[in-house]
Design brief:
The structure holds 2 protein chains of 2 kinds.
Chain A (H helix, E strand, L loop, with lengths): L1 H16 L1 H17 L8 H6 L3 E2 L6 E2 L2 H32 L2 H15 L3 H20 L7 H25 L3 H9 L4 H30 L2 H6 L17 H8 L8 H34 L5
Helix pairs in contact in A: 2-12, 4-7, 4-9, 5-7, 6-7, 7-9, 8-9, 9-12, 11-12
Chain B lengths: L16 H44 L5 H5 L2 E2 L4 E2 L2 H31 L4 H16 L2 H15 L6 H25 L3 H9 L4 H30 L2 H4 L21 H10 L4 H38 L1
Classes of the chains: A mainly alpha, B mainly alpha.
């Protein structure tokens, strides 16, 4: 009697535990099911490599290269900001800050990470964009440059906290050995700690990239919205997330446009999925290399 | 003649004192510049946070008063308050947590207490990590397809809450897992030795001990969920709903969506921007104080575990 109850309860937990797997599979199924119909209208190659995105024109054109280019463009710009700043902050926190400073500074990074993306978008729209427009004498303030800047700031705490985690896995003995042969702190940092934590830090970069490319509200409000392949960093652009968020409300359910937006989401999902799996794989190997189980 | 065992002059006891000093000062310069650069990176974070808070508080604070917090919007969004949006955000967040909490805790209990076979743990861990990395707008599309259309809930509070719940799930799972792993193994063994079954041990010993940590995870996910906009864009939110939401199946106003709508819709940009500043400040205040609470609680708990 008692044993049957125990078995039932274990079974219940097992089923519930698979919910997250079920949701992930559900997301994949929904994306495929709603995305595939668009390929009756446009070939996958023309969809991915087509340079005109005029989903509401007659006849409509579904080439998402401008959107992909815009996403990659703003994400690369963001990386130029969030990688040095994030890794630098992690190194500062881990190597230079004393216990008291760390207790104060770590929450700063976590709080910065919890600022909602809509607030960043609003801030970018009303403060950063007008400022850049005046300062750089641009025709418009809502550009790829502004977007990269804000995405970079947003992704900095993500990179910082994951990189800090990676640094904390470097065994003390590495540092002690380096000091013992006469290296100073800077040499120890650049020639021992950073190389040892290298693959762990690259996980942070990948996840920062994943965060930046999937970011929606900021990009929607700040990027400017024109679906053209960017030629300069001061062009307004329409990254993939912005296209989905801006156009889903207007696309009639079941129309080609609707399915095309799901296809964009599918590609976006696949990109972030690859990033996440790569990060997971690298960080696992990294911890094994440093002799830490799991 | 003595051979030089230390080619590096900096640590060569036989090197001339002047050369040694030069090498050391070169090193210490590199170190000074390097450390200053790292400090500047850290300083940038503080500057960003202070900058955002300052600009939004400077222009938003003047608009926030009792009326703003308790009244419905009037005169096509140019006057009155944002009370329905505040209430909407509270309902959506509450709904999301009610949905994600049991699922998340059960998943964490399964992973830590029933310690399933290796490949199951790996499969679940990979899917939890990936769920955490799915872009928020993709959650929105999933919610639109499944809850709004397939289940027929329409654009409604319940569709939005369920969508946000899935987004909160990985946060709750990892916080609960951390809390459960921190419970010492000896407590479990003591309970089992007294003849308690595994379920009795989990229910009466492990879960109560892990409860504070789980609650911290819940608070953390509240902060995350309350500020999300993209998932409710097509599943729940409306720019204007008359009065307060009265059923789970009605559309709702929500604070984050309200900021977006104020900046992109309507016909009175200047007045709307003023209200958007105040709404942003309100949302920022809400989300940041919730996160600070979670961070503070977690620090206190970690100290307790270590003591």
């Amino acid at each position: 009697m008692n044993r049957r109850k125990e078995r039932l309860i274990k079974w219940l937990f097992t089923v519930t535990a698979f919910a997250s797997l079920a949701f992930l599979v559900g997301i994949v199924l929904v994306l495929f099911k709603e995305a595939l119909p668009v390929f009756k209208v446009v070939s996958p190659k023309a969809f991915l490599l087509g340079t005109s995105w005029y989903p509401t024109a007659e006849p409509p054109e579904f080439g998402i290269l401008p959107l992909i280019a815009a996403s990659l463009w703003v994400t690369s710009g963001a990386l130029l900001i969030c990688v040095p700043l994030g890794v630098g902050s992690a190194l500062y926190l881990h190597e230079l800050a004393g216990a008291k400073q760390r207790a104060l500074l770590k929450p700063v990074i976590e709080i910065l990470a919890s600022v909602p993306s809509i607030v960043y978008g609003f801030f970018g729209m009303v403060v950063v964009a007008p400022f850049l427009q005046r300062a750089l004498d641009l025709p418009i303030g809502l550009t790829a440059f502004t977007t990269s800047l804000i995405l970079g700031v947003m992704a900095t705490p993500t990179v910082a906290s994951i990189a800090e985690d990676a640094l904390s896995y470097v065994p003390r003995s590495f540092r002690e050995a380096s000091f013992a042969v006469g290296a100073d702190r800077w040499q120890t940092l650049t020639k021992v700690i950073i190389p040892a934590a290298g693959s762990g830090i690259s996980t942070a970069v990948i996840l920062g990239m994943s965060r930046a490319i999937g970011e929606t509200m900021t990009v929607l409000m700040v990027a400017g919205g024109s679906a053209i392949i960017p030629e300069s960093i001061f062009d307004p652009v329409r990254p993939m997330t912005a296209a989905i968020a801006a156009e889903m409300g207007e696309a009639p359910v079941g129309s080609d446009h609707y399915h095309a937006l799901f296809a964009i989401a599918l590609i976006l999902f696949l990109i972030t999925f690859v990033f996440n799996v790569a990060a997971e794989y690298i960080s696992r190997r990294y911890r094994l290399k440093l002799g830490l189980a799991r | 003649m003595m051979t030089n065992a230390f080619p590096n002059t900096a640590i060569n006891p036989a090197a001339a004192p002047a050369a040694r000093r030069r090498a050391r000062s070169r090193r210490s310069w590199a170190q000074k510049i390097g450390f200053a650069a790292l400090a500047a990176c850290m300083g940038a974070n503080i500057l960003f946070l202070a900058g955002i808070l300052f600009f939004i508080a400077a222009k938003g604070l003047g608009t926030i008063n009792w009326e703003f917090l308790t009244q419905v919007p009037r005169d096509s969004m140019t006057a009155g308050g944002v009370a329905p949006a505040i209430v909407g955000t509270l309902y959506l967040t509450l709904g999301a947590i009610l949905f994600a909490l049991p699922l998340g805790v059960a998943c964490a209990v399964y992973l830590t207490e029933y310690s399933p076979k290796g490949w199951i743990v790996n499969l679940l861990r990979v899917s939890i990590n990936n769920l955490a990395g799915v872009p928020s707008v993709v959650f929105g599309l999933f919610g639109l397809t499944v809850f709004v259309k397939y289940f027929g809930f329409g654009v409604s509070m319940i569709s939005g809450a369920l969508t946000l719940g899935i987004l909160a799930l990985p946060v709750i799972i990892s916080a609960s897992q951390e809390a459960l792993t921190a419970v010492p193994q000896s407590i479990r063994e003591a309970s089992l030795a007294l003849g308690a079954t595994q379920w009795e041990t989990i229910r009466k010993v492990v879960l109560p001990a892990a409860l504070p940590g789980i609650l911290t995870g819940v608070i953390l996910s509240v902060g995350r969920v309350a500020g999300e906009t993209a998932p409710i864009l097509f599943t729940a939110a409306a720019f204007y709903v008359k009065g307060y939401p009265d059923s789970p199946f009605s559309e709702v106003m929500a604070l984050p969506y309200h900021i977006y709508a104020l900046m992109t819709e309507g016909t009175h940009p200047e007045e709307q921007t003023r209200i958007a500043y105040a709404s942003s400040l309100l949302l920022l205040g809400l989300v940041l104080s919730v996160s600070m609470l979670a961070i503070w609680l977690r620090q206190r708990q970690r100290k307790t575990y270590h003591a």
